[in-house]
Amino acid sequence: MHKLLIVGAGRGGTALLRLLSNMEEMTIIAVVDERSDAPGLELARSLGIEVGTDFRPYLSRDVDVILEATGNQAAYEEILRLKQEKTALIPGTFTGIIMKLISEREALIAALTQNQRERETMLNSTHDAIIAVNRQGVITLFNKAAERLMGLEAADVLGTVAAEKIPNTRLHIVLETGQPELNQEQVLPNQTRIITNRVPVRNEQGEVVGAVAIFRDITEIMALAEEVTDLKELKSMLQAIIHSSDEAISVVDAKGNGLLINPAYTRLTGLQPDDIIGKPATVDISEGDSMHMRVLKTKKPVRGVHMKLGPKRKDVVVNVAPVMVDGELKGSVGVIHDVSEIKRLTEELERAHQIIRTLEAKYTFADIIGFSEPMRAAIEQAQKAALTRATVLLRGESGTGKELFAHAIHNASERKYKQFIRVNCAAISEHLLESELFGYEEGAFTGARRGGKRGLFEEASGGTIFLDEIGELSMSMQVKLLRVLQEREVVRVGGTKAIDVDVRVIAATHVNLESAIQAGRFREDLYYRLLVVPIYIPPLRQRLEDIQPLALHLLRKYNQEYGRSVEEIAPETLRILLSYHWPGNVRELENVLGRAMIHMRISERIILPEHLPPLERKSGNLGGPGQPFAASTGKTLKEAVEEAERQHIIRELAAAQGNRTLAAKRLGISIRSLYYKLEKLGIAEEQS
Q1: Which residue from 171, 261, 597, 632 has the fewest beta carbons nearer than 10 Å?
Q2: How confident is the model at residue 407 (pLDDT cuts 50, 70, 90)?
Q3: Strands (E), 9-91
């Protein structure tokens, strides 16, 4: 039993009510019309059927079919939007077709009683096909439309039994039962789809005296219905795509009222569909102009417009484009990108850049390549020094990597997130160095900056200052530096007030400070202030076993810089590198390998001897017992003792064939002490 709701109780709805109220398979649960005096409502009451003026309350009931007979498109669309998914909706246009068929049927029956010729003319002029039979089932009417749809001539079928001539006819059944068969869909043998109404014809006594079938070709209508179904499916798919998109999307109609938003839009702005749908396009804007309204006015898209949306004032960038259908503007669609996260990340990146600009220490102990015993000793000592706040003095020849050690010590210390400031004492003139290191007050000298200037020691407060080439300082600067190390305070040039500084000092020099003290070029009290943690970095010739790993590391570095793919160093090339005395140390090794790779062909993968620039092979020995050393004359006792100590160390190194561990054992000192003495005594050790 199908439950039916009739919406509309005018002439059409009243006629349908009369027809459907007698059908056993249909139960009319209610008849609704906004006019309380509609004629169909009075008929429904007389039949005991519930009536009402608002269809909405009935949509939540268990309804199988809604018959919309108002002829109002807005009412139809609202019912379509609010009805349950399982409920079928028959539109007013469809009802109109039925009513038209019924009206035409009545007109035809009336015409039959008046004039046969007029009846035939009328029936043949109608677009609907009509077949009529008498009580015996013999065809008495077969109009032109029936000829066209059935593919039969009226002359061939008139006077014959319908059940024999008309395939799948049910007129004989209607004759037997006296019950109408309305809105029946059928497919003819020629594949034409029709919708038919078969009704009995009764005389004044109510006896069945015939039957009439009225039918219409609905092939095109069904094709259109299928297209509508396809469009609905497409609409559903597009809505699903829009709702699943991570990009916030909003759509407005041609008047600028909201039509659709997706969940991403709600997540971004905090606005719900009820806040947007049917509301003006400006309702979601907290700062800026509506791009929807601009697009609707200009019919041109806009891209990359910044604005703020929703109560959260979200920073967004919007792209809006017009929606054109057959050249007519139907609305606009906007895609909104959240840039607040990008803005936050950009700010974090800028803060990181500021930190990086402040923390200029680029290297760590992992960047120091050294597996030889002297390098391991230097690294171990530097790692221990990094854990303290003590002043460090890095000693070694030029190019051995003293600055690399300074970076690594800072990055391994508790000050690694503070400033790391580098100063090359030999690169700044003496009269500028003081103001650079200690700063100056306003008016301290001609050209002084208004308000004065902070010195590098003040800038480095809380962090580390690396004083490279400390041995090149003048005696007057040494005095000022000594005060900083002793008192932990600076006085600006032209000032009198002492400024406290918390700075860790790492100094470096290739100068033999002991000899400089002897020559009166370096203060002994400053020397001992700097010599809290002395670290000797051996020259490359004292750690030849590190040449191969250093070279491979440099290959990887230069491959990236030069766009090369060099993979290895030939054994004979490595022997040449090991036989060279490397006066420029690691810096010279970098230069040699860089030049070699530049002169290689792009396709070459191995550095061969011919790729190397000319290298001077080393000559001579370490010195030993057989080598004569001229005795010094006019030296102090301290100098003579140092010279004797120097000669003895050289002899023991020669006897140990360059093995420094064995030489230290022979001398009865630690290997670390030996490295220190090699630097202190200025022993230019060479290995054959």
Answers
A1: 632
A2: very high
A3: 26-32, 50-52, 65-68, 88-90
How far is it, in rounded angstroms, from Cα 134 to Cα 30?
Answer: 37
**Rounded distance between C-alpha atoms, residue 41 and residue 613, angstroms:** 111
Distance (Å, whole) CA 512 – CA 523: 13
Average pLDDT rounded to a whole number, residues 299-308:
89
- To which residue do tokens 């009683």 refer? 113
Residue indicated by tokens 């004979």 = 572
- CB atoms under 10 Å from CB of 630, counted, come to 5
**Does position 623 have pLDDT exceeding 60, yes or no?**
no
- CA separation for the pair 663, 651 (Å, rounded): 9
Classify residue 532 by its DSSP letter: T
Q: Which residue has the higher pLDDT, 532 or 653?
A: 532
Two structure tokens written together for 661? 């561990």
Distance CA 633, CA 663 (A): 28
β-pairing, 489-491 vs 88-90, is: unpaired
The SS3 assignment for 684 reads coil
Give the total residue count for the chain: 688
Residues whose CB is less than 8 angstroms from the CB of residue 288 and which lie 6 or more positions away in sequence, other chains included: 305, 306, 307, 308
pTM reported for the whole predicted model:
0.43
Residue among 121, 169, 118, 123 at smallest CA distance from 142? 123
In the block, tokens 């006085």 appear at 491
Residue 409: CB partners within 8 Å, gap ≥ 6? 382, 385, 386, 392, 464, 506
User: Which residue would you say has higher pLDDT here, 244 or 608?
Assistant: 608
Residue 600 and residue 608: Cα distance in Å, rounded? 9
Give the CA-trace dihedral at 581, 582, 585, 586, to 10 degrees: -110
Question: Is pLDDT at 618 greater than 50 in this prediction?
Answer: no
Q: How far apart are the first and last CA of the chain?
A: 112
Q: How far apart are CA 216 and CA 143, in angstroms?
A: 12
- Beta bridge partner(s), residue 423: 467
pLDDT in tens, 79-136: 888 888 888 888 866 666 766 766 776 676 665 566 666 666 776 777 788 899 999 9
